[in-house]
Each structure stands twice: as C-alpha cells, then as structure tokens.
Design brief:
27 helices, MHC class II transactivator, alpha/beta, 6-stranded mixed β-sheet, leucine-rich repeat, 3-stranded antiparallel β-sheet, P-loop_NTPase, NACHT_NTPase, Rossmann fold, single chain, 4 domains, MHC_II_transact, 10% strand
Length: 630
C-alpha cells in the first residue's frame, strides 16, 4: 500500500516561487500578455524568489479597487497545495489583513447546470454560519477589502472560451452561473476592493478575461537538490532510504521527471514497490512507470475471478476519462458514471475522488461528484482508451499524436496523453499491459507498424520547435532504437527552441537524441527556462558546436564551472557561446552584459591556471559587432 507522507511543508518551502508585478491594462495589452503565456510566462522578466508571506504584497498599489493575483504552474507543480498552505497560515493568524478567506475548486463548482447567487456561493455552499448570515453578508459587502477569494484551477471553468459577462441587475442576489459570478467580480460589479487569487496552468486563457493583473507568481518545480531532499523525506522511515535515492538517481530520465512534485511522488511509490519485491531496477520510461503503477494497484491480491471484471471496468473508466478529457473536464456527477461496478472500482483503487455537490437547502437531496485523483491518471487512461477502443482503426490513432497535424490544435489539455499513447503501442506485449488488457498480439504489432510507417513519412524538418520537441518525447517513450535513430539522423543542424520551455525531462530527451546523431548542431536556447544542469548537459555534447542562451543562465553556468574547477568544460563552453548580434530590451540585459564582461577577467585566471596561457578573451565578447538597444 502507498504510505501517507506529509510533505506539505517541504513542498511549499522548498519549491521556488518567482514573482512579477503587472500593471498592463486594456484589450491589446491583455492580448499581448496572453501571447507571453503561450511562450510561457516569465522567462524574459527578472525573476525573484519570494516567501509565502510576500504573495499579497503589491508595491506602488494604493487604490482600493479589486486586486488580482495569478499563480501559474504546470499541472502537478503544487498550486493547490500552495493554496491549502495559505489557508492554513491564515487560520494560524497570518495574512491578518483578511477577515474572510473563501477557497473554491473551480472544477467542483462549475458544473454547467449549477447557478448561484453571490450570497449562496459564499455563505451557503462554502461555509454555513449557524446564525446571522444576513448580517455577515452585509458586513462583507461594506468591507470588501477584508475578503480574499481563491479560485483554484482556472482550467476547471468548463468552456471558458465563452466566458460570460455579468448581466445580473442585482449581482449579489440574482442567480448566475459560476462564470457570470466570476465575471462580475473581475468587472468590479461585485465586492469591488476584494482580493482575487487565481491558479492556472501557463497556457490557460486567463488573461483574455482578466484585463489587469497586479501580480503574477510562477511555481517552477524542484531543483536536483530539492528532488533529493523530497525523496529522502519520503523514505526517511523506510528500510530502503539509502538504496531508493541511489536507484532513482541512476535512472536519469525518471529523476528528471521528479522536478514535478506529483511525478516525484509516483516515482517514489513505484521505487518502494520495486524494492519491496526484491528487484533492483526501475522502468526506463514514464509509460512503464504508470503501467506498473496501475498493475500494482489493480492486481494486488487479485483473484482469477475478478481479473476479467477489472479489465472491463478499467476499459470503461478509460472511456469516461477520454469523454471528459475531450471537453477539458476531469469531473462529473457520480450518478452519470456508467455503472455501479465501475464507480466502486474507480473509488476502491483511488482513481476517482468523491466530493459533495453544494446544496441550496438542507431539504434538498444531497448529490455527489467524482473527479480523477490526478491529471496524470486521466492522461494515462485516455491513452489506454485510444489503444483499446474497437471503433478506432489503427491508422486513425496517429492523429492523436499532437506533432502530426499542422491544422488541428494539439491536445494541450491532455499534454501527456500522446506520449503515453506512443509508449503503450510498444508495450502491448509487456506482462503489465497484458494484465490490464486482453488485446491479442496481432493487433499490437499492427499498431506499431502504423506508427513506424507514419514517422518514416513525416517531414521532420518542417515541424515547428514545439511539435519537434513533442515528437522527440513521444519517440523516446517507445524506446524503439530504429525510431530514435531515424529521428536523430533527420534533425536540422540549426535547432531553435527560442521561447519554448524546456523542462528537465525535455532536456534529457533532447540530449539523448542529439547524442545519437553524427551531425554537428547549433542550438538556440534563449528564453527556454532551461535549468543550469540541463544547459551544462547540452553544451558538453561534442557535436554541439555552438549555442545561444540567456546571458544570465550562461554566466551562472560559467561561474559554477569555475567554482568546481572544471576548466576544460568552462573553456569549451565559452568557445561555443554565440552573442552577436545582441539586443538589450531591459536593464536586466545591461546588467547581464556587464556580468559577462566581468567574467572575462575570471576566465583569464582560470585559463592561466589550467594551461599556463597568460591571455584569453571570450570569443563572444571579441566577436560582438552589433549591440542594439530596444
């Protein structure tokens, strides 16, 4: 069984939170800000690590209008746990500027048929005072600056492309959908002066509906040192404490995925299972991790009599996951689950979590909803459905891999699903897969051939950087040597990931594929949010002959190499670095350029110590011919 581990304090205190204050207003600026989010958030801005106590501090803001704060983070980064921690801190006396704090899970309150008045939402559904609710609500209307409203998971507002404007004549009393209520709060028709806190994924379209954001905060995940600390805390009372960390770090791909706290938890769970079974190796891909996770959950103490029933229930649950996922949903009313057996199966194994739907009065019959326990679970089940669905022909499977079509939008909401789908196609003869499905071997071979044929015909050099990265990640999940080599040999010599966020797993995959190629590559890694370890790994490849990266990231890497006395890599990386032409857009760019020049003197000392040479000039400085000020 999975051990309960209280990691909340570690999760928040050790996760880097970056902050930026926004003051842009108006339609055009909102559109521009949305464009920034598409290439992901804050990488061009100056980043500042902040403490939780600073979240609601907005400098130079003195007016009494509604304040809007946005917390960005990929799925699984810990946005919801941060919100829980804020609420806990408030209950312990912190954030005393707020007398009322209301926390709403968007996916649980935004079922399409539900309507609320503001008073019902706050004082009936969220918390119900035993007496005096009318007086309390009146006090809140008169003191909105003492109210914090938290809406966790903007993606949970279904169909937010059609976000409604609040048209209620008495918005505090009239019944509205949750989207209309939220619109009224944003438009300052309700509780003007309160503080609104949203959590969202970087690509959610929040900025189309919130024209002014006072502060943007980004949760960026664990550093390698924080991953080690998390794993150590997870196993600190276990017999496998030392061996678990060593085993996970040896599997570099899985360790890279541990930058995401939720992935780190899954990897730790599987590692614990593997060690308890006396094995000494972990799966090599994320698909295998979750295949074994499902097998461990379902097959534990399973009898032959229940095997078929469980396979059928899993297939039905996978269909439910897909039907909801197509609509960008993860929640449904419990009475809409296809059968009692499927509902019990999903709840028993922890794939669904139940919750009570809000009631308008005590006499109203209580209703329940169910939500997938984790976004990764739903992504995996969607991929499983596409593989098992009899109505889907083999040749149609490839359209669900998001790199294969220029016209159709990729399944961004189910961003892991294409990778799981590609991985499962090559794991259908794996014992773990066979225990979850009764699909015959001929079908699995046909699907593999379909994918091989499609990728062979794919014009890889025409793919945009984002689709190319998705292709590499999908192919990596197959662990098929032919496909990996095929893709590696067809990469363009000049690869630009300008403005494309490169997570640690992305960097691992890119490094692995480049290493297979005999070509020489030039990389553009500017504004990719690549971490220092990833930058070092790519720069150290012999067939990477030149690179561009953010100046601050590059100088940080060089300072690290200098401290560790890795002078050989330091010299090699300075010779590969390209700066010309350089465009300074902010004062930060000027400071970064100054840091680079200061690095010149340190480099002279390093080279002299390493080779005895008395003079050395960083080629990027020597060759800088054009400096442009935006």
């Amino acid at each position: 069984m999975e051990r309960e581990v209280n990691l909340d304090h570690l999760f928040i205190d050790r996760t880097l939170v970056q902050s930026q204050t926004e003051t842009k207003t108006g339609k055009n600026s909102a559109k521009a800000m949305e464009k920034e989010l598409v290439t992901c958030s804050l990488q061009e801005k100056e980043k500042t690590a902040i403490d939780r106590s600073q979240i609601f501090q907005i400098p130079q803001r003195k007016d009494l209008d509604t304040k809007v704060i946005v917390v960005l983070g990929k799925a699984g980064m810990g946005k919801s746990i941060l919100i829980q921690k804020i609420c806990q801190d408030w209950s312990n006396g912190e954030f005393s500027q707020f007398e009322f704090v209301f926390w709403f899970d968007c996916k649980q309150i935004s079922l399409p048929e539900k309507q609320y008045s503001l008073k019902e939402l706050l004082l009936e559904f969220f918390v119900k005072p035993q007496e005096g609710s009318k007086e309390i609500f009146e006090y809140m209307l008169q003191n909105p600056d003492k109210i914090l409203l938290i809406f966790d998971g903007f993606k949970g507002l279904h169909d937010h492309e059609n976000f409604s404007r609040c048209s209620a004549s008495q918005p505090e009393k009239d019944l509205c959908s949750i989207k209309e209520l939220l619109s009224g709060l944003i438009q300052k028709k309700m509780l003007n002066g309160c503080t609104l806190l949203f959590t969202a994924r970087p690509k959610d379209k929040l900025y189309q509906y919130v024209s002014k954001v006072d502060k943007t905060i980004e949760i960026v995940g664990f550093s390698p040192q924080q991953r080690e600390l998390y794993i150590t805390k997870y196993f600190e009372e276990s017999l496998y404490c030392d061996s678990a960390l060593k085993l996970i770090k040896e599997c570099e791909y899985l360790f890279s995925h541990c930058y995401s706290p939720v992935m780190c938890r899954f990897v730790c769970f599987l590692c614990e299972t593997v060690l308890e079974m006396g094995e000494n190796s972990l799966p090599s891909t994320l698909t295998e991790v979750f295949l074994k996770f499902f097998k461990q959950k379902i097959m534990f103490m399973q009898t032959d009599a229940t095997t078929t029933q469980n396979q059928e229930s899993l297939a039905t649950l996978a269909r439910v996951a897909w039907c909801l996922g197509e609509k960008h949903q993860s929640t449904m009313k419990s009475d809409l689950i296809p059968s009692k057996e499927v509902k019990e199966f999903a709840l028993k194994y922890g794939f669904f979590l139940p919750f009570a739907l809000p009631r308008r009065s005590d006499s109203e019959e209580e209703e329940f909803g169910s939500t997938f326990s984790d976004f990764v679970i739903q992504n995996f089940l969607c991929a499983l459905h596409l593989l098992l669905a009899e109505e889907l022909k083999d040749k149609n499977l490839t359209k669900y891999l998001s790199f294969l079509s220029k016209k159709k939008k990729p399944y961004n909401w189910l961003d892991l699903m294409p990778r799981f789908l590609a991985g499962l196609m090559f794991l259908q003869d794996d014992p773990s897969f066979c225990s979850l499905s009764n699909e015959d071997e001929k079908q699995s071979t046909k699907k593999q051939k379909t994918l091989l044929k499609y990728i062979r015909r794919l014009q890889i050099n025409t793919l945009c950087p984002e689709r190319l990265l998705e292709l590499l990640c999908c192919v990596y999940e197959t662990q098929n040597n032919y496909l990996l080599q095929h893709v590696a040999l067809r990469l363009e010599p000049e690869l630009s990931f300008l403005g494309i966020v490169l997570t640690p797993p992305d960097v691992h995959v890119l490094h692995s594929v480049l290493k297979r190629s005999r070509k020489e590559f030039s990389l553009d890694l500017r504004n990719s949010s690549i971490d220092m370890q990833g930058l070092q790994a790519l720069v150290s490849l012999r067939n990477v002959t030149s690179f561009r990266a953010s100046l601050s990231d590059t100088v940080r890497l060089w300072k690290s190499l200098e401290q560790t006395k890795d002078y050989e890599l330091l010299k090699a990386s300075t010779e590969k670095f390209v700066l010309d032409p350089f465009k300074a857009k902010t004062m930060k760019d000027i400071r970064d350029l100054s840091d680079l020049v200061e690095m010149q003197e340190k480099m002279m000392n390093c080279v002299q110590e390493a080779s005895g040479c008395t003079s050395y000039e960083i080629p990027a400085i020597r060759n800088l011919r054009k400096l442009e000020f935006a």
